[in-house]
Design goal:
This protein is of the alpha/beta class. Among the domains are: 191 residues, FAD/NAD(P)-binding domain; 91 residues, protoporphyrinogen ix oxidase, domain 3, CATH 1.10.3110. It is 33% helix and 23% strand. The protein contains 15 helices and 19 strands.
């Protein structure tokens, strides 16, 4: 049996970020897989560079920028081609640009246009359990919500706008809704973030996995254990006991970054009963990522950009969203080819997990043909499946946060970080890990 002051469970980007912030402390990080990085997985498959998880990240935080500089990978940042900034919404056989052009296309309609220009003028909100869908319907009308908001939520969060809670999924919008009749007032009153040299969507040379690899390279290897499975977590006097495939570890402070249902399955004892139940109820839907390589100029519609999202009010759809990675980063495929990355499944279509891969591929190609007009079959295809992809910030998630805070776990030395705690993006997860590390350090200094 080994004793430690701090144990971190999970070597994804949240756990690694916490470890990085604790690099001057003694800790132990345990990861079940043989590799670190969690769902940030970059794959080199022949001539193709693809991502199993996040394809890019939004770089806008001063703290994350500073961390990248400290890691020495600033020169490895890949900035996308400026022409790739444009995004689209697909509806039927049409593809409509998002942005100022949205005001001129039929997706919003005249009534929706006027409501957008007014900043969604409405009475202030007061419902803590207001769904994302109901918020946008009240502020902007059903047409705007169905044609613009639902595709965004299903394509980015793999979620159902009618179930996601505004307060959890979009906390800034929730705050502005409570404070202002027009959202423009909230937007204009937002405190400016510290400036960084450049901000925007980025990747890295070698793929997104360059980021977690750089963090691991800066950590003390004596504090890292991979290939270690956690089997039970229990409370003991003065801290916690972690039973693993590698032995038993005791600690005073415990940072948990494992997926919610996995955490629920290993928390043991009456002290964890309510927390375990709340974690078990967090829903993370099945999601499949299909990567295709096509010859360049193989569609009748030549328009490209970042990608497109699909409206979901047109029957049974397979495509939630489609990215064009080679439009942003040209080194992802041979110069005479282009990559399409398509997402399917999510909260709206859990039935997708029961489909045969070939059938699913054929349906996606059919929809791509409807939208873009395919003139040639794909040269290559690969599917990657996430059985539990993105945690949904719904009522069950809200109940989990309530339980965690009411039972005051952080004052008892137990901390949580990850995509189920503070945001689903890569920077959100990094900030989550950095935050809990600060809490652990402060708790140590005050004890």
């Amino acid at each position: 049996m080994a004793n430690h002051n701090i144990i971190i469970l999970g070597g994804g980007i949240s756990g690694l970020s916490a470890a990085y912030a604790l690099k001057d402390q003694k800790y132990l990080l345990l990861e079940a897989k043989e590799r670190f990085g969690g769902r940030i997985v970059s794959i080199k498959d022949g001539p193709y560079q693809i991502e199993a998880g996040p394809n890019s990240m939004m770089l806008k935080s001063k703290r994350i920028w500073n961390m990248i500089q400290e890691l020495g990978i600033e020169e490895k940042i890949q900035w996308p081609d400026p022409k790739s900034k444009i995004r689209y919404i697909s509806k039927g056989e049409g593809m409509y640009p998002i942005g100022i052009q949205t005001l001129l296309n039929p997706l919003a309609g005249m009534a929706g246009l006027l409501r957008i220009l007014s900043g969604g003028f409405s009475e202030r909100g007061s419902d803590e359990n207001l769904s994302v869908y109901d918020f946008f319907v009240r502020r902007f009308g059903q047409k705007v919500t169905e044609n613009l908001v639902v595709p965004f939520v299903s394509g980015i969060y793999a979620g159902d706008a009618k179930k996601l809670l505004l307060a959890q999924a979009f906390p800034n919008l929730h705050l502005w809704d409570r404070q202002h009749k027009s959202l423009w007032s909230g937007i204009l009153g937002t405190k400016k973030q510290p400036r960084i040299p450049k901000k925007g969507i980025v990747s890295f040379n070698g793929g997104m996995e360059t980021l977690p690899k750089a963090i691991v390279a800066r950590l003390n290897p004596e504090f890292l254990r991979s290939g270690v499975t956690v089997t039970e977590i229990s409370c003991i006097d003065g801290g916690y006991r972690v039973k693993t495939s590698d032995g038993i570890y005791d600690c005073k402070k415990l940072i948990l970054t494992l997926p919610p249902t996995q955490l629920a399955s290993v928390l043991s004892g009456s002290e964890f009963l309510n927390l375990s139940r709340a974690l078990q109820n967090i829903y993370s839907p099945w999601l499949a990522v299909h990567h295709f390589a096509f010859p360049k100029n193989s569609t009748r519609d030549p328009r490209r950009g970042f990608g497109f999202l699909s409206t979901q009010n047109q029957g049974d759809r397979h495509i939630l969203g489609c990215l064009w990675p080679t439009s942003s980063f040209s080194d992802k495929a041979p110069h005479d080819q282009e990559l399409f990355t398509v997402f399917t499944g999510g909260s709206l279509y859990p039935i997708r997990q029961n489909e045969d891969e070939d059938f699913q591929k054929a349906q996606i190609l059919k929809e791509l043909n409807q939208v873009l007009g395919l003139k040639a079959p794909p040269l290559w295809h690969r599917r990657i499946v996430w059985p539990e992809a993105i945690p949904q910030y719904d009522k069950n998630h809200c109940q989990f946060l309530k339980t965690y805070r009411e039972e005051n776990w952080e004052s008892r030395g137990l901390f949580m970080a990850g995509s189920f705690f503070g945001g689903i993006s890569v920077p959100d997860c990094m900030e989550s890990g950095l935050r809990v590390a600060e809490c652990v350090i402060n708790a140590h200094l005050s004890s």
